Each structure stands twice: as C-alpha cells, then as structure tokens.
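Repro:
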Amino acid sequence: MADATEKKKGGFLKWFGIAIVGIIVLAILLPSDDRTSSSSTETAAATPAVEVDAADLARAYAKNEVAAQRAYGDKPLIVSGVIEGISLDFANDPVVSFVGAEMFQSPQAGFSKDDADAVSKLNKGEVVTVRCESVSEVVSIPMLKDCKLQ
C-alpha cells in the first residue's frame, strides 16, 4: 500500500514540476505588446532605468509580488548578477538565468535571436549586466524582457 502512495506522490511531483517549467517558458515567450507606437518606444528609451542586483530583485518578488511589480514592473531595469545558466527557450531565443536569492527563484533575462552571438560568449559564473525594458513574474520568479547586454 505504501508503494502505491509513493508512486502517486512521485507522479504528482513530476507533473507539478513540468507544469512550472511550462509556465516559465510561456512567460518568456509571450511577446511584448507590439501595438505600442514609435513615440512610446522613444519615451521608454528616454526613461531612466532602475538599477538593481539580480538577487535583490528575486528577494523582492519572493517577499511581495505586488510591491515588487509596482517598484520594478513596466520600467527599464539595469540588472547585474552572477550567471546561473544560459539556455534557449523553445523558440530558440537566448535566456540568461541569474543566481537568485533562493533555489528555483532565478531571475531570467530574455533576449532576441539578434543577441545570440553576444550571449553565446557568456559563461556560467560570470558577472554580467543587462538592460531590460520590463519585468513581470511567474510564480514569484522575475522574468526580464527585451534585454540587451551592457
């Protein structure tokens, strides 16, 4: 009887993990709002960026998503941190994961395919700074969008 319970528990954890990974990948891939006019794009470029450490950003979202999104969301950010991983999303766009405050809360910076050459030269463990045009969250994980290496 214990074996059946352990199998059910293991199956649940497996599917739960797959669901979390799927949500993260979808958040990275969802396109930003393409309906913005060129004047709003110019305004965003002129908006000063908020500087934040990747681990501090992760802590802020883990502590209170609402407060963190009000502080950091929908504004340019300059984020510095240690690279935890470098990967491709399922659309083959580069993604850099930073060391976060806790396990499974690594801020993720999404790049366009145009940035693949620059991202390919990065290494795990390196300290890097990126400028990202916005941040949202998925399960308390900061998802940085439209990023460029600084």
